[in-house]
Amino acid sequence: MGAPGARTRAVTTPGRPALPIGEVDITRAAANPSGVEEFDRVLGGGLVPGAVVLVAGEPGIGKSTLLLDVAARAAQSGATALYVSGEESAAQVRSRAERIEAMARSLFLAAETDLATVLGQIDQVQPDLLVIDSVQTIASAEVDGAAGNVSQVREVAAAIISVAKQRGIAALIVGHVTKDGSIAGPRILEHLVDVVVTFEGERHSRLRLVRAVKNRFGPTDEVGCFDLSDAGITGLPDPSGLFLSQRAAPVSGTCITATVEGRRPLLAEVQALVAATTAPQPRRATSGVDSARVAMITAVLERRANAPLKGHDVYVSTVGGVRLREPSSDLAVAMALASAILDIPTDPRLIAIGEVGLAGEIRPVPGVERRLAEASRLAFTTALVPVGTRGTASIPERLEVIEVPDLTSAVRRLGAGPRLAVVDG
Predict the structure, then answer these.
(1) 171, 203, 237: which is the final residue of a domain?
(2) Residues 263 and 229 placed together within one structural domain of the fold
(3) Motif RadA KNRFG motif at which residues (predicted)?
(4) CATH of the domain at 320
(5) Residues marked as binding?
(6) Binding-site positions for ATP
(7) Per the count of CB atoms within 10 A, which of 13, 256, 313, 347 is most buried?
(8) What is the tens place of the pLDDT at every residue in 203-253?
(9) What is the pLDDT of residues 97-155, one digit of tens each?
(10) What tens digit of pLDDT does each residue of 398-409 get?
């Protein structure tokens, strides 16, 4: 018996012949500003015709509000926008639009959950911008299963992406997230779309951050900052002030650091409180900072700086709901804790940048030059930084940079002497 022959297929003449790469029209990939500068920053300049953007985030975080604002601004600039809601009625969407001042004559609303009807609405309206809220609420009658299951999400997404590509429609698709924060539905959904952005923020805070996880048209290390209020959602081109408390006099237990969100430096305040307790297991509570890193920094303070933290509850938090994820905030956490223990306020014009090692050393962190420039711009005068910073970064003229090799040297800046025990006994 011979080997099976290769499958043959009929040759099809392509409708559009291949072109030399230099003759490809690059204007088809040009981004059009959405009217929301912070959103454009994340997208890489704006919305590209035919591009599909997946916007994911927890319920109530502000996704619908942001996309309704984007659709209204596009309509106000002369484009035709279609907002399809599978979760709310058209009347509910209009009520929100009136509240956030997102009304426009060429903004069309449709409350649909059937895919065929959604495609029919697209045929009728012929939009330049399409918003689908959300992909998990729309179902196709030709696919078994309820809306939101893997097969339905794949079918709906493929149909929306196909019509967007064929007609040059910029499409924004809302996606739900699971309990662990990942995007619900099949993983192929993230591969099919051109851009994936995540919407983040604490439910009890007004701050919202939009991050690009995938972007075929721009960088993936950019972050947009927004302020969510009853009046809607507004971009924050200079959000550092949100993360710094305003007080008449210095207070112990606080320290400022400079973090980097994407490529944007932000100043944030760390607050610490140390209180004596008779409980056999003292509390270690954190908000906005990684609890494991705070536990490590607390242990280093006890072992390397002789900090009397046994028998004390420790509370560490950030101001304004910002989350400090990178190790560059370690030194600020340690300084806030030392300040709380000694009841000595830190200089209100001082920032602390550096990673704390288990031996008590202060390690360098990336992006120091941008952090120092932001601190100088906001009139800070002193910076505690790791050794070697002067040789690797340009120092602003009005900023005094103090290099500290270890945690003990940093604590001395509080006037505590070489050891915390000198003051605490």
Answers:
(1) 237
(2) no
(3) 214-218
(4) 3.30.230.10
(5) 57-64
(6) 57-64
(7) 256
(8) 777 788 898 989 998 888 788 888 888 888 888 888 877 778 877 788 999
(9) 999 999 999 999 999 999 999 999 999 999 999 999 989 999 999 998 888 888 999 99
(10) 899 999 999 999
